[in-house]
Every structure is written in C-alpha cells, then in structure tokens.
Write a structure and sequence with these properties.
Elements: E1 6-11, H1 19-30, E2 34-37, H2 44-53, E3 58-63, H3 68-81, E4 88-93, H4 97-106, E5 110-113, H5 118-132
C-alpha cells in the first residue's frame, strides 16, 4: 500500500487571514492526505525547515498579502541550500495573473487561486505527486 501524500500548508509573512488555507487543509485530509498546517506568520526558514522535518511531498504556501515574488525565491534558495530537489512547491491565494506566470517561471509547480474548486486542488496535487513518482 502506498503512503498517503504528505502536505505542509503554510502562511508566510504578515498575512493574518487563514480561512481559505484551513478549508484546503480539511479538503485534503478528507481526500486521504496527511496534512500539516504551520499556522500564521511563518518565515520562509521556518516553513522550509518544517517541510524537511516532516518529509512532505508538497509544500503549499498560501498568500494574500502580495509578497509572493519575494517569498518564493527565498524558499527556493533555502531548499536548494539544503539539497532538497524533489519537493513539490505550490502556491495558493490571491495574486495577479502576471505573478502566476512569474511564479511558474521560477519553478512553482502550480498556482491555485481563490476560486479554484476544492476537488481541483485535490486532483492537481495528486497528479503532481504521481508525475514526480510516489515515495
């Protein structure tokens, strides 16, 4: 039997709104995934360290504060410094279309905006892990 997909959901920075990420966490748990929610106001360092310690398949960062083009380069740098090459990084929240393009260009695997249906989030994360290969 394959292990369930492990996901760390994180809120980075000063953004204090977490209703959406909590709904996503519940949706992923209901779909059989192991989900860790880091809570509010985390630093990129805290998020990366937790993702590595928890040995997650997916690190999902939820942002509503407009700092995505600052936060994700820091996360990629930290993962690279720690030699992590197979973790799937996804973004979620509210952001302009041009930032979605920029995030994908820097290596974010998928960006799910506030209007993404819950079942699409589940199927997207499952597909990304299947494409990478299950552990």
């Amino acid at each position: 039997m394959t292990q369930p997909i492990r996901v760390l959901l994180a809120k980075v920075g000063l953004d204090g709104h977490d209703r959406g990420v909590r709904v996503v966490a519940r949706t992923l748990r209901d779909a059989g995934m192991d989900v860790i929610y880091s809570g509010l106001h985390r630093t990129p360092e805290e998020v990366v360290n937790a993702a590595i310690q928890e040995d997650v398949d997916i690190l999902g960062v939820s942002l509503l504060s407009g700092v995505q083009l600052t936060v994700f380069p820091k996360i990629f740098k930290l993962l690279n410094e720690k030699g992590v090459t197979d973790m799937i990084l996804v973004a979620g929240g509210v952001m302009p279309d041009e930032d979605v393009v920029a995030l994908k260009a820097m290596g974010v695997h998928e960006v799910m905006l506030q209007d993404t249906p819950p079942e699409a989030i589940v199927s997207t994360l499952t597909r990304l892990v299947d494409e990478r290969g299950r552990r």
